[in-house]
Design goal:
Structural class: alpha/beta
Strand order of the largest sheet: 14-15-16-13-12-18-19
Largest sheet: 7 strands, mixed
Shape: globular
Distance between the termini: 80 Å
Bound molecules: NADP nicotinamide-adenine-dinucleotide phosphate
Strand content: 15-25%
Helix content: 25-40%
Radius of gyration: 24 Å
Number of helices: 14
Amino acid sequence: MSNFPGRPTLNNPDLLQSRNFVNGQWITAASGKVIEVHNPATGELVATVPSLSQDETRRAIDAAGRAWPAWRALTAQARSRIVGRIGELMRENREDLAAIMTAEQGKPLVEAQAEIDYAAGFFTWFAGEAERAYGQVLQPSVAGRRILVTKEPIGVFAAITPWNFPAAMITRKAAPGWAAGCTGVIRPASQTPLSALAIAVLAKQAGMPDGVCNVVTGSAEVVGRELTDNPIVRKLSFTGSTEVGRVLLERCAKTIKKTSMELGGNAPFIVFDDADLDAAVKGVMASKFRNTGQTCVCANRILVQDSVYEAFSEKLKTAVEALVVGNGTHTGVTQGPLINQASVNKVEQHIGDTLAKGGRIVTGGKRHSLGGNFFQPTILADVPRHAQIFSEETFGPVAPLFRFNTEQEAIDMANDTPFGLASYFYSRDLGRVFRVAEALEYGIIGINEGLISAPEVPFGGMKESGLGREGGPNGIDEYLEVKYMAIGGLTSSHGKLH
Ligand code: NAP
């Protein structure tokens, strides 16, 4: 029997790497230390990856620093070709990349394939944006002067990413970084490093020069400490919890790094009495149950107007009971496992707290009979506002329904959180659409829409959900510095101005 019973069968086995990629070479840790990657659906060992030391992390940063001058000196068009090619290679290897993702993360294969399309889209989008990082020529306020504004790559970036989107969270950072002319050191989550390493294989195949793309794995504390403290790193892009984001921000303060922080959410999903209820149910299913409820933009609080509460709850129950829980590789499965037991415990705890405070179960509510990390898709009704689930991200397949009466009450409930990432509402009243959209304190508003992620949109949060935007026209600016040149002395010797 193989040492890696969870290893997926691939058309191109080279895509599943158990080493790190530094300066164009595949390396292991000198210590021989490794991190095990397990399939959350079966518990089987899929692979091991190195656990790098601080010194080894520093060497990866040094390699990125050395590669930077030549990479930034390339024309934008030349960089664009390589960046765009990685996206094409991802699409050509879609089945294998999805199989790797399902093995390490657990999401159903169809969702993994959709994530590969989404992740590849960032390379395509930013290949285009590379050529549009224009500067400006401004009107001077002083005669005889010209003012030029240029945009330049910031330098070496570091990326630290979570396990819920093992490919897209990497490409949403790497694609704009490389397109802008930066070089990078990427550290994926310990539970899901294999998708990131597969992208490194494709980056090399696309013709990426050595040192531009480096992917390292290891202890969050050891590798993360070097990435935040090393002065060569000029930019840290982090996606993960608000708690860890706060720690990393503090550490980056020492060297005044530019940071992007894509942090936690607590998304409200408001169903008004004039909503198309079937469309709203579809929206909740997409927003709440995708990735088994483990997305930062998951509907975390479903606020339903009194007069449609029962009707909506019935329709949602029918849809939730049609979900098929199981191993993501099996045909027809729509809900994979949670990532680990800690997540199962948190889901259970949120349900227990809600019941203790007067809420009730509409469907689900228990660990699934499949055992392990599987949990029943759940709806909770009559959830009181002081329940824990109102103020904390559950990160699991639990849809809590809250009641409201008036539009203002819904807005107040929605904004009653320190988070401000995604929000959703369903209404067919044009006036209400504008009133509510403008009142919600969120970076992302889905209006009659439950799926809001795409490469061309500026994704990011307000308040404690983060800093900066990823994707869209703003995404590349996160990796660029603005330089202004004042050119004086343009007055001729005869005093004439040109
Ligand atoms: P997490 O615990 O914050 O971990 C995220 C990443 O940070 C992982 O790679 C983790 O490494 C690393 N890390 C943890 N402690 C660190 C430290 N002290 N120094 C350096 N790195 C450290 O979050 P998670 O549980 O993986 O992900 C779920 C969270 O991410 C949720 O809150 C979700 O809302 C948020 N999220 C936000 C977005 C967005 O775009 N806003 C997108 C997706 C997810 P290890 O894997 O080794 O622990």
